[in-house]
Amino acid sequence: MNDDRLAPIARSERASFDYMEFLSASCKKHWRFVDAIYGVMPIFGMVLKSRQPHARTRQEQLRELALQVVSTQVSDETNIVRLITLAGQQGLSEVYIQLPYALTLEQLQSIRKEFKSDLQLTQQGERLEVVFSNSPH
Q1: H or E, element range at 67
Q2: In this predicted model, what pLDDT tens digit does every residue of 19-32 receive, in sequence order?
C-alpha cells in the first residue's frame, strides 16, 4: 500500500473538483519556499503533507492535497493531469472536474496521452468526467 493514500477505500468512491476554486485559492495563497517546491514537484508535497493528520474528514484531506498540486504556474492540462493522478492515487473510481470552459480536442488528447488506457475521459460541456479502470494505478 502506498504511504500517500489517505485511507484504504473501495474503488467505488467518487469526488468532484471545482477547478476554478483551486486556481483561485492558488492565486490567493501566500507562497513559502516549500510551497514553491510542491508546485514544481507536487508528488513531493503529496507524500509529505498527506502524513499530517490536521484535516478532519477525508474530503478535507483530499481538498488539501488538491490545493497542493494545482498551480497557476502551469498549463490547465498539467493541472488536470495532476488532479486525475491524485484521485487515482487515492483510490477513487470516478472524478468530476468542473471547468471554466470546455476543453479542446487537443487538450483532451494531451491529457489522455498521460494515462494510456487506465481511464476514460468524457466531457459534457464544462464538466470533465474521469472513470478509472479496475486495474491498479
Answers
A1: helix 58-69
A2: 888 777 665 555 55
Q: Which helix (H) or strand (E) holds 15?
A: strand 14-18
Burial code (b: 16+ CB inside 10 Å, e: under 16) for 82-101 equals: bbbbbbbbbbbbbbbbebee
**Location of C-alpha cell 471547468:** 99
**Residue 126, CB half-sphere, CA atoms under 13 Å: how many?**
8
CA distances from 117 to 7, 29, 67, 114, 136 (A): 25, 35, 26, 9, 12
Extract the C-alpha cell encoding 42.
Answer: 507536487
Statement: the pTM of the whole predicted model exceeds 0.85: no
**Grid cell listed for 7:** 485511507
Report DSSP state, residue 29.
-
Residue 38 · residue 45 · CB < 8 Å: yes
**HSE of 28, CA atoms in CB hemisphere, 13 A:** 7
